[in-house]
Amino acid sequence: QVQLVESGGGPVQAGGSLRLSCAASGSPSRTYAMGWFRQAPGKEDRFVAAIRWNGERTHVADTVKGRFTISRYNAKNTVYLQMNSLKPEDTGVYFCVAGRNYSMVAEATTWDGLDAWGQGTLVTVYS
Questions:
Q1: Which of these, 48, 1, 30, 31, lies nearest to 101 by C-alpha position?
Q2: Is the C or the N end of the chain the one with fewer CB within 10 Å?
Q3: What is the mean pLDDT of the segment spanning 60-73?
Q4: How many Å apart are CA 106 and CA 18, to the nearest integer?
């Protein structure tokens, strides 16, 4: 079973940047596709980004395209979400997720049904 632990959240001024990290453990975490979801206050979770197990394919939501980048470093079992030009509407709890294949994560509309998700890390963007 895969376990995921996120870090890197916090308050940031609009226009600023943050990098979220997700440390994965358990077998076979290195072969899983990974991704990020966001849940804004009082709203449902939303897909943010996904990355194939070998990093060769990625997908990000239209709302963050050109601003967010997902990457992974399998030697450290870690996935990153680089967030630039942050906006107040990016505020929310960011959850790291894992799935047995890329399509499972990239096409998910909710993390419910994926193989694993973390506890989340809060990002607050203030204007």
A1: 31
A2: C
A3: 97
A4: 22
Residue the block writes with tokens 């395209």: 65
Name the β-bridge partners of 10: 123
Residue 112 to residues 3, 18, 33, 37, 46, Cα–Cα distance (Å) = 15, 26, 15, 11, 11
pLDDT digits (tens, 9 = 90+) for 8-52: 999 999 999 999 999 999 877 778 999 999 999 999 999 999 999
126 within 8 A of 11, measured Cβ to Cβ: yes
Residue 1 banded pLDDT, cuts 50, 70, 90 = confident
- Looking at residue 26, its amino acid is G
Cα dihedral sign, 54-115-18-125: positive
Query: In this structure, what are the phi and psi dihedrals at residue 27, rounded to the nearest 5 degrees?
Result: -105, 140
> Is the bond preceding 28 in cis, omega lying within 30 degrees of 0?
yes
H or E element in which residue 104 lies: helix 102-106
